Amino acid sequence: MLAGSLGAGNTYAQSQQTASFRSNALWYDTGGQLMNVHGGGLLYQDKTWYWFGEKRGVSQSEGVNVYSSKDLYNWKNEGVALAPSADTTSDIALGCLMERPKVIYNSKTKQYVMWVHLELRGQGYAAARAAVAISSTPVGPYKFLKSFRPNGNMARDMNLFVDDDGVAYHIYSSDENMDLRIARLSDDYLSSTTQDSLLFRRQREAPALFKKDDLYYLITSGCTGWAPNQASLHSASSLFGPWKLVGDPMTGPGANKTFGGQSTYVLPVPGKKNAFIYIGDRWNAKDLSDSRYHWLPVQFKEGRVVIEWIDNWDLTWFDNF
Ligand code: DGJ
């Protein structure tokens, strides 16, 4: 993936193989192009990681991009997984907004299922819908199925979470972002069930959920558009709560503004117990395509979840996990 240092004097070959995470640097794919995969999430399938995220122009939404990797460092551009439609009557007509896409695999239906926050063309953020698309392969192209408000609720920033028993959940900001809600998905992962409840009403966005030792953790941001704000961590022993506010998991310089970024996903590292990578976006509101990536190890110190800024690190961090 990564990374020339910024600006002049960048001596890296753009497609050079890399083996470390350097948040905020320019991240290149294996073809030498800058990666464009924002508000994203990952899927691990058959020893390959797939990274799905928003394809952005300067401001416009250009669908969902997907990249693949065998090592989490070097990413191959697999193209647009879900493209906006040229059909102006479609919910995903060109000009719509697709944000925070996430993909999960349903082993019963053998389908890859994508959920994405969808805003209808020309309506700003008023529509507040979830959209669902499917594919028989991880990279797609995905077929758009439908968009809706889960149980009638507004649905903006979102994530998906599959529990150990294979049951999947949609976590979403609702009621003009005042509420964070969770809905259990149907067994085929294509719909919300009516098991849909309020997590808390604290005006939070950017939910990223993970599970460690039978406890669920949820990182969220405040609501300040593209500008960074303070993260918070909640924990619960049941997905439907009660959720307890733990505080800000970010520590060190820049922590009170999430190091200039916003959460999007927490990646469990396969084969490692209790190894997780926090993934965030450092948005560039003037050119969304130039938004950068934050990848940082999640640390557990004296029972606390701690995320510190580290300029340059690699997976050997988890060697003793
Ligand atoms: C904050 C959200 O987290 C982003 O996904 C995006 O919707 C921006 N707001 C838009 O201002």
From TrEMBL:
As one GO molecular function, the record gives: hydrolase activity, hydrolyzing O-glycosyl compounds
The keyword Hydrolase is annotated on this UniProt entry: yes
Which InterPro entries does its entry note?
Glyco_hydro_43, Glyco_hydro_beta-prop_sf
The record's section on Gene3D superfamilies has: Glycosyl hydrolase domain, family 43
Q: Which GO terms describe its biological process?
A: carbohydrate metabolic process
Q: Which UniProt keywords apply?
A: Glycosidase, Hydrolase
| CDD domains (alphabetical) | GH43_CtGH43-like (cd18825)
Read off the Pfam families from this record.
Glyco_hydro_43
Q: Does the keyword section mention Amino-acid biosynthesis?
A: no
Q: State the name under which the record lists this protein.
A: Beta-glucanase
Species for this entry? Paraflavitalea soli
